[in-house]
């Protein structure tokens, strides 16, 4: 049986990555980044907004609990 795609990836499919990457390049967002890129940060913040997360600790705990399904590589 086909499992439906989760809601968050469906929403992020509507964000054009080319436009986001162009903005990151224009403003030098990834200039000194070693591992946590602007795209990763945007995805975490979007997830936090949609999930009504209230603190960085709450965001981190939620993302770590779903690490096997996560879009972030810890």
What key phrases describe this protein's structure?
54% helix, 4 helices, 74 residues, mainly alpha
Question: What would a concise description of this structure say?
Answer:
The protein has four helices and no strands. With 74 residues, the protein is an all-alpha fold.
Descriptive account of the structure:
There is one protein chain. The chain is an all-alpha fold and 74 residues long. The protein has a domain at 36-74. It contains four helices and no strands. It has helices spanning 7-12, 17-27, 38-50, 56-65. The longest helix has 13 residues, at 38-50. The protein is globular.
The helix fraction, in percent, is 40-55%
- How is the biggest beta sheet arranged? none
Please identify the structural class as seen in this structure: mainly alpha
Helices and strands, in N-to-C order?
HHHH
Stretches with pLDDT under 50, minimum 5 residues? none
Q: Number of DSSP helices?
A: 4
Overall geometric form: globular
Radius of gyration: 14 Å
- What's the total number of strands? 0
Report mean pLDDT, rounded to a whole number: 82
Helix/strand layout:
Blueprint: H1 7-12, H2 17-27, H3 38-50, H4 56-65
